[in-house]
Amino acid sequence: MKTLHSLLLRILCPALALAALSASAAPALPQRGISAHRGANDTHPENTIPAFREAVRLGVQQVEFDVRSTKDGHLVIIHDTTVNRTTNGKGRISDLTFAQIRKLDAGIKKDAKFAGAKIPTLEEALDSLPRDLWINVHTYADEKAAVRVARIIVEKKREHQAFMSCTQSRANAVRKAYPQIMICNMDRQGGDASRYVQETIRQKCQFIQLTKLCSPEEMRQLKAAGVKVNYFGVKSPKHCRELFAAGVDFPLVNEPALYLKECPPGGGKEPAAI
User: Which homologous superfamily does the CATH classification assign to the domain defined by 32-266?
Assistant: First the structure.
């Protein structure tokens, strides 16, 4: 009956059908801009909800965060293998249960005003971000856990904007289960930029994350293949502007407010009111 109703709607009321389709369509995403590395981590505790919200308020075009798996299989947002640097606790993520990690304070070491901030789950991180910017999900979890990352992205209906930055073995496992998930190739071929570019194109990845510029011809090849170019290792606003000029789409930065102001191709949105 639902299918018949949909068919009649398309035949008898094409304008209404088109409006319904437009309402459900994914929002347009930025073509290029600034990527907030672990959120606005210069002013807020990295890889936490406050850092993500501040990055969004500033107007970034991409937010990057890191995913690891706890001892009992929960997916949490943290870069290091241990909680030592960013929380008031100690221990390896893989040796701690989610309940143990949830008791830790992930804000107090940054500033007392962030006391009580928690290490978020993947679900919480996705829920904190709008649907009109890119989400760079750097996945350190093993292959089985990487598939769970992909499942959550799909369940949250974020596959139009969230891409997984991971190694080829993890990407292969993810693509078998969820072929619609976008991939950023993180197998950098031992620093061989040319080989890295060619492998990214061959694997039909949607993103690459350079740490040094490839040749202009290789950049043209990436663009022709529809690969968006991230860059990690920005040294200054001047360097960022040079990267944009060379074809980089999304430089990852630790000071998003500064780079949004100083690098015009990364701007475009005024900070929202708090």
Answer: Phosphatidylinositol (PI) phosphodiesterase (3.20.20.190)
